[in-house]
Amino acid sequence: MYAFEYRRPTSLAEAVSILGQSEEGKILAGGQTLLPTLKQRLAQPTELIDLSRVPELKGIREDGDSLFIGAFARHAEVASGDLVRQRIPALAALAGEIGDRQVRNLGTLGGSIANADPAADYPAAVVGLKAVVKTDRREISCDDFFTGLFETALEPGELIVGVRFARPEKAGYAKFRNPASRYAMVGVFVAKFGNEVRVAVTGAGGSVFRVPEMEAALAKDFRPEAVAGIAVPADGLNGDMHGSAEYRAHLVTVMAKRAVESCG
Amino acid sequence: MSCTVTMTVNGKAVTREVEERTLLVTFLREHLGLTGTHVGCDTSQCGACVVHVDGRSVKSCTMLAVQADGTSVTTIEGLAAADGTLHPMQAAFREHHGLQCGFCTPGMVMSAVDLANTHPNLTEADVREGLEGNICRCTGYHNIVKAVMAGAEAMKSGTTQKVAAE
Amino acid sequence: MATATGIGASVRRREDQRFLTGRGTYTDDINRPHQTHAVMLRSPHAHARIRGIDTSAALKAPGVIAVLTGADMAADNVNGLPCGWLIHNKDGSPMKEPPHWPLARDRVRYVGDQLAVVIAETREQAKDAAELVEVDYEELPPVASIRAALADNAPAVHDDVPGNVCYDWHLGDKAAVDAAFAQAAHVTTIDLVNQRLVPNAMEPRAAVGEYDAATGDHTLTTTSQNPHVIRLLMGAFVLGIPEHKLRVVAPDVGGGFGSKIFHYAEEAIVTWAARKVGRPVKWTAERAESFLTDAHGRDHLTHAELALDKDGHFLALRVATQANMGAYLSTFATSIPTYLYATLLAGQYKTPAIYAEVKAVFTTTAPVDAYRGAGRPEACYLIERLVEKAAHEMGIDKTEIRRRNFIPADAMPYQTPVALQYDTGDFAKNLDLALPAVDYAGFAARKAESAKRGKLRGIGFATYIEACGIAPSNVAGALGARAGLYESAEVRFHPTGSVTVFTGSHSHGQGHETTFAQIVAERFGVPIENVEIVHGDTAKVPFGMGTYGSRSLAVGGSAIVKAMDKVERKAKKIAAHLMEAAEADIEVKDGRFTVAGTDKSVGIGDIALAAYVPHNYPLDELEPGLDEQAFYDPKNFTYPNGCHVCEVEIDPDTGVVKVERFSAVDDFGRVINPLIVEGQVHGGLVQGIGQALYEHCVYDEDSGQLLTGSYMDYCMPRADDVPSFEVNWHEDQPCTHNPLGVKGCGEAGTIGAAAAVMNAVVDALSEHGVTHLDMPATPERVWRAIRQNRPAMAAE
User: Fold this and answer.
1) A229 vs chain C: nearest CA distance in angstroms?
2) Are residues C285 and C306 in the same domain?
3) How far apart are CA A118 and CA C12, in angstroms?
4) What are the phi and psi torsion angles at C563 (to 5°)?
5) Within this chain, do residues C657 and C780 fall inside the same structural domain, yes or no?
């Protein structure tokens, strides 16, 4: 790891101010991706700005019909928190499948979505649950937030405060994990809001994406069989030694089916 | 660039001046001489470095020492009683031959204790899933799983394992 | 006599207290006063000429003490790392043995090949400075696979090795095999890949070099399975340090699985550099370095044919294997695909004629050497895939075809057509015991039940036999080994009756401190807590060949028995003196020395005291002291064998294979500590299952880069990937030629498991027309096999 300066703001305003003045500063949230990256000397930030003492980023609360989860919520809190488990059990289940127990004890929601790893789980839930990403300066719709491979709509110096998840009637997540890394090779989040259904896929492409054909089919008939015959094209999907684009495309259909099954 | 970190490690308050880029595991091993916590990989996967920070298991190779400033850290050295009496989970690993080369063992035991603390009724599947962040190359996990089930039971009943022949 | 701590008792391990409380001492736990830290500068290219190395900027970096290169080593007359086994070509000429410099001199030949060492006050400073070393590389084309190495006009990995062929070797009777094939009613053919694996001991390699300028003594502390071998190889061949000035210590070692047998460059580098900088030098691998530079395992391409008569009796076996040596010859690399592979091709069967050809090649990849099983898993996998394929093709039950071909127990000792003479084994009995354990009869019902849920179920068998207890030195020498393969032991009684045993075996997970103590405690009736086992230090242990090839108990244990025999012979003389009786009248039982027919007796403790306080002692006939040393050279290999059965269920939608049950029935000869033996089997099984389903070391063909360089991409089996196991054994076929009757158990699980799993996978897929699938049976491979519904997945 290269040397850096460590900063630990105690308020959102202070954090934003430090980040704004920083040259090549990086946010340290849970650190479960950032620290391995730094250890391999793949990044050389001038400062690390540790958000662990910023109170505005913490907590999980109801917000009208939605659930607001602070950016610093650890995966383990989301997985085991009573409120999440009661209101959006599929989200709790998804959080409980990220990484391993130790990673979940440190990794955070904000860190995960800001990093926008194509194989991360949370982006599927954010898009699937019509979430709104609240930052220090604005609110960003989930459909606008993820813009590409490791890319988001966040501006330089912009900090995620939390995410507001809409509460679905039914929702489910099915993940096919990479056998080695255990990241999502394909993860499909399905959520039903009245007549509207969302199908969000992570792991398969450069960034999370929706499958309109499946959404339309499920809106008409919310059963696994409705998506069983819908294939997504392999073109443009990720392919590596763990799974070709063709295989991932196939898994999208299988996991979509299973996500619907898991809704009960 | 250096900074001062203060934390409680295995019940003792410690303060040290460290480089900011110092990992918690490096702090424990190099600065405090607590070499029971091991480093087996660089990608946060093997779990040989697992310790408890404020009672929760974390990978100390993926946390800066300064992030643990102000916390209470327990390492494998802090698990047994001062007189050497093994913690029930340690005793169960011994009884069920849940270790061979011993390298993954400290992390495995620390993960297992956290798992047992947070799951009242562990099934074999819970244990196998709960240990996915700890890689062992020697045991094939069979005896680790047995040990964790038995250790969790012993933790619940507050009894230590009977000390076997020797 | 069965006691709570004697032979046959599941004594809880004595080493566990320190490991469980964080008090083990692994190499990286050791820090010396004034220690410096070494970081290796490693080639980012698979193949390149080194045009120049500029260390000037690095030398100016904070904390840097030295930056040393291959030129510095050359100036100090440091030699290359030796290969310990000479193989001869078919024409009798010797194999190609290009130099393997500890620091590359003019060329780097794999990603990770080290060409400079940076030594600094801290590790981070050394890493910082390593980035400042400027290397002028002229990139050369990589040769990343066996196929690439043998292609027409392939680039030469070594200029003086035409065609990249290290050796082209053969074993067996070609004419007899050809004749048998001409008579065959059926021939089963297979092409298979035994993929490259990374051993992945959880403790990364590490080494600390020290030099005492006042005495000229060198010390190397290293993660080794055999410190004496390292002392010999490094001292005599590489650095030119005589043994009496070189101490090698292998303290607690966190797993080896073969990968820590070999003499690695870093050991020589830190030992040499410690003298150059005048301070201790410590190096610890990061896991990324382990992936790049630990010797890898397996990596064979094989074409084989089995000739059968109309009833499924094996007539002959013909095998052609290509084996990857990597960029350089690691210590025992050359022996693995030859004498540890082809000699096992008879397996448990009375195949009368066998012919094997093995071509070993150089590639621009990490060196390949022994990995748990080392040659024998490759042999077992080949034979057992062929057998089940033949059974399927001929419509014979897979257990029945094996029964028809087993070497019967009453044919022992049995000379195979490929050099080995098996001493004991009852293969039909193994199978008989395995069948009820897996409820073979109930399999069809379970398969039907799976089918109802849309799943495919398969069952597969593997029988194996391995040659362990390596090895009779004269035999090994005749076959090209450049060292003896005995073991040494010293049994030292102390004046008050406690015992220290010095063994040349090395424990890095096997529990020798317990098992060996059990043997001594039982023999002399000494409480086990009064027996200490010392290993891993050339300054303490007289000599040792170390631990590999399931040899510790069979060879190292036998050496202890031999030393105990000497102790007992001397103790008998002392007892006779003490009791004023004739030596011939002394009877020994459980450490009591009794005058026959009387109640006069004396214990070993009293004898030890008399030996060290020789007031009443036959000083004119006998030296004082009770401390005996022995070397044991095995008379034959030992032949552990067994039958493994695996049942899998496959999800055809995803291709995911789940091991539902796994049963192992083994014959390890006599078992000293059942708890430890069971643990060895469990661990071995998961390494075999790992090869079958998960693990694959992959180099990019175009760039020669290692694609599976971390646990993010190299799939290690985890707790939730595998089931619990049913492990059984019988002890009625003890080894006939060693005093303990033991055969060894360390590698068995790995040898049988991969074949059993793959046979089960192919069985499950057979309804889709699949007759073979290469390892690892990843979800995508299985899914494609199902989808394509074609006879065979071609080798990649």
Assistant:
1) 13
2) no
3) 48
4) -65, -40
5) yes
The residues that bridge with C631 in the sheet, in sequence order, are C488
Check A179 against C694: CB less than 8 A apart.
Answer: yes
Predicted confidence at residue C590, as pLDDT, reads 87
Total number of domains constituting chain B: 2
C368 and C330 housed in the same domain: yes
CA gap A9, A16 in Å, rounded: 9
ipTM: 0.96
pLDDT tens column, C66-96: 999 999 999 999 999 999 999 999 999 999 9
Q: Which of A40, A241, A243 sits opposite C698 (nearest CB)?
A: A241
- Return the percent helix, strand and coil in chain C, to nearest 5: 30, 25, 40
Return the partners of chain B (3 or more C-beta pairs < 8 Å): A, C
Min Cα separation B83/chain C (Å): 12
CA angle at residue C248 from C243 to C251, to 5 degrees?
160
Within 8 A by CB and 6+ apart from B91, the residues are: B151, B154, B160, B161, B163
What pLDDT, on the 0 to 100 scale, is given for residue C792? 43
Considering its fold, how many domains does chain C have in total? 3
Residue B59 and residue B7 share a domain: yes
Structure letter (DSSP) for residue C237: I
- What distance in Å separates residue B83's CA from the closest CA in chain A? 29
Whole-number Cα distances in Å, A41 to B125, C54, C275, C690: 37, 22, 31, 31
Is residue B82 situated within a structural domain?
no
Query: What is chain C's mean pLDDT, rounded?
Result: 96
Same domain? C540 vs C496: yes
Amino acid letter, residue C10: S
Residue A250 host element (H or E): helix A245-262
User: Does C541 share its domain with C591?
Assistant: yes
List pLDDT tens digits, range C396-420: 999 999 999 999 999 999 999 999 9
CATH of the domain at B134: 1.10.150.120
The residue segments making up the domain with residue C123 are: 31-140+202-255+260-293
Is B118 part of a structural domain of the chain? Answer: yes
Residues A174-192: tens digit of each pLDDT:
999 999 999 999 999 999 9
Give the pairing of strands C64-69 and C114-120. antiparallel
* Percentage of chain C exceeding pLDDT 70: 99
Closest Cβ opposite residue A36 in set B44, B114, B115: B44
pLDDT tens figures, C509-531: 999 999 999 999 999 999 999 99
Q: Do C681 and C544 share a domain, yes or no? A: no
CA distances (Å), origin C796, targets C192, C299, C693, C768? 10, 13, 16, 20
Task: Look at residues B31, B49, B76 and tell me which one is the last residue of a structural domain.
Answer: B76
Question: Sheet of A66-70: strands edge to edge?
Answer: A60-63, A66-70, A160-165, A132-135, A139-141
